[in-house]
Amino acid sequence: MLERLRNHGKVELLADVSLYVAAAVLPLGIIAWLMGLRAADISVPFTYGGDLTSVLVGVKGLFETGSYLTNPSLGAPGIAQFYDFPSADGLSYLVLRVIGLFGVGSGTGVNVFYLAGYSAVGVATAFVLRRLHVSRPSSLGVAVLFALLPFHYMRGEDHLFLSTYWIIPLILLVLVWLDSSQPPLVNRVARRWFPFALRSRRSITALLICAAAGASGVYYMFFGCFFLAAVGLRAALRDRSYRVALAAAALVLVSGAVFAAQMVPAVVYAAQHGKNPAAAVRSPFEAEIYGLRITQMLLPITDHRVPSMAAMRARYVAASPGGNTEANVAALGIVGSLGFLLSISAVLLGWPPSHRRRDDPPGADETVSVRLLGFLSVSAVLLGTVAGFGAVFAGAVTPQIRAYNRISVFIALFALITLGVLADRFLTLRKGAAWRVAGSFGVALVVIFGVLDQTPASLDGGVKYAAAAYAADAAFGEQVQAELPAGASIFQLPYLPFPESPPLYGMADYQPFRGYLHTTGLRWSYGAVKGRPNAIWQQATAALPAPAMIQQLRAAGFTAIWVQLNGYEDGGTAIHAALDGLLGPPATVSDDGVLAVWRL
C-alpha cells in the first residue's frame, strides 16, 4: 500500500513538472515564432525608439555602474540623477542586475528579461492554479492564454516591467486564502487574545508574495493592495469577524512598506535639494484619459487576423475621442471576454451557489470561487473605468496613479480562471475516461482558438525595423567614438527637456539618448532632469547665440556639439550654417543627414 502511494506521488510530481515545463515553453515558443526570432540577433532589442530608448539607457547604466538612480555618463557637465523620477521595480532591477553579471549588453539584457517574462507568467499561473486544485489541462490552458495576452506583447519592451506580470497570479493566491476559512496571519480560534499567527506556511508565503508585489512596480502594488482591502472587507462582513480585516490590513502594510523603502532615496534627495514639481507633472484628468474602457476590453485586438474584426477595432479607434490611448492594449480576446462576462454575472446573479460555511475544517475551501472572481472583476471595473473610483482617487488623493486601464491584466486573469474553473466543474459531472480525454481535447481547441484570436498573424515587422534602425545608430556611434577622445563631453542640441517631453518638430522624446547607447566612455548632456539647476543651465546655454554658446561650452569643458537637425523648425539649416561658420564643417554626419557632430 505504501509503495503504491509512493508511486502515485511520483507520478503526480512528474505530471506537475511536465505541466510547468509546458507552461514555460509554449508561450515562449509561440511568441518567438510570431516575432520571427529564429534569425534575430539577440543583442539587438526587438523594438527600438520611444520609451524603450529610456529603458535601454537605464539597463545600460545599471550594467555599467550598478545603479539605476545615477549615471555619470549623462547630464554633463553634471551627473544625471534620477531621484525625482523614482521607480518601485526593485525586483525587476535585481533580475536585470543578475543578467548583467554575465557580461551581456543592454540589448541582450532587455531581450532576455522580456522573453523570460512569458515563461515566468506561464509557470506562475500554472503553479497557482494547481495550488487551487484546478485540473492540469485547464491550468495549462489558462497559463498559455494569460501569458499571451495582447497586454503582454503590445506593452512589449517599451513598458518592460509592466509586461512581466508574473506577480499577479501569486497575488490572486493570497486573495483566495484571505477569502477562505483559514486566512493567513490570523488565528482561526477567536478566543485567543492575540489575533496574529505568523508561523504557518501560508502566512509566511502570503507575506513574501505581498512584499514581492511591493517591489514589482507602483501599479501592481497599488492594484494588489486595493484587492486585498476589498477582499478583506468582504470576508470580514460575511464572517462577522474583524480578524480577516486585520490580516488584509497587515498584508497591505507589508506591501506598502516595501514600496516606501524604495522611495527613501528620492525622499532623502528631495530633503537635501528641495522638491522638483517639474519632474513628473500629473493632472487628475489624466485618470479619465488613461482610464479603463469596457469597449476596449471586448473589442477585437488591433491588426486582428480576420480583416473584418480588425476593421471593427479601427473604426472604434478612429471615431472615439478616447479610442487611441494605451487602453488599446486592454483587449481580452473572445475567450477572455466570455470569461469576463461569466465572472461578473456570477456575482450579480449569485451563481453558482456557495457551499462555504464558517465552521468548515481548514483547507475545505482551497479551490477558487467563481463568485470571488466575479467580485474581483466588478471591483476592478469600478476602480479602473473612466469616471470611476480611480478618477476620484486621482482628484482627492494623488494623480500620480493615472493609467487605470492597466488593471485590465488582473481582469484578464480573473476571466480566464473563471472559464477554467467552470470547465472543470462541468467535466466532474461527467464520468469515465472518454470524458476526460474529450475534456482535454476541448481545452486544447479553446486554447488554440484563443491564441489565434489574441495574437496577430505576425509580429516580426517591428523586429526587422528595430534591427535596421539600431544598426544605423550603432554605425554612427562608432564614427563618433573614433572621432572623439576618451572621456570627451558632448553638448546636445536642441535642448529637449527630460523626462517626458512632447516631440520637438521631428525629434521624439528620448531620442538624444541614442549617442550614449552606442558609445562607451563619453559624457553626454542629455539626461539632466528638468527643473534642476543642471538642466536649467543647459536650457539657458542652448538658447544663447552660437558664438556665446560655444564660449560657454568650452569654459564648461565640452569637447563637441551633437546636433539633431530635425529638432529645428527649419530642419537645422540655421544652426548648421552658424556652426559651420564658427567651427568649420562637422566632424561626422549620420547617413540620413539628421545627426551631425562638430568638434569644439
Protein described:
By secondary structure, the chain is mainly alpha-helical. Among the domains are: 166-281, no CATH class; 284-356 and 375-429, no CATH class; 462-599, no CATH class. It is 58% helix and 4% strand. The chain has helices at residues 2-34, 51-65, 90-100, 106-131, 136-147, 150-155, 167-179, 201-214, 218-239, 242-273, 286-289, 294-298, 307-319, 333-349, 370-384, 389-396, 408-428, 433-454, 460-483, 514-517, 533-542, 546-555, 573-583, and strands spanning 70-71, 80-81, 185-186, 196-197, 489-493, 523-524, 560-564, 588-589, 595-599. The protein has a five-stranded mixed beta sheet with strand order 6-5-7-9-8, sandwiched between helices. The protein has a two-stranded antiparallel ribbon with strand order 1-2. Strands 3-4 form a two-stranded antiparallel sheet. The termini are far apart.
Radius of gyration: 27 Å
Could you give the order of strands across the largest sheet? 6-5-7-9-8
Shape call: globular
Largest sheet: 5 strands, mixed
Helical/strand content category: mainly alpha
What is the count of DSSP helices, taking H or I runs of 4+ residues? 23
End-to-end Cα distance: 86 Å
Q: Helicity, in percent?
A: 55-70%
Q: Unreliable runs, pLDDT <50, ≥5 residues?
A: 357-365
Task: Give average pLDDT, whole number.
Answer: 90
Q: Tell me the total number of β-strands.
A: 9
Strand content: under 5%
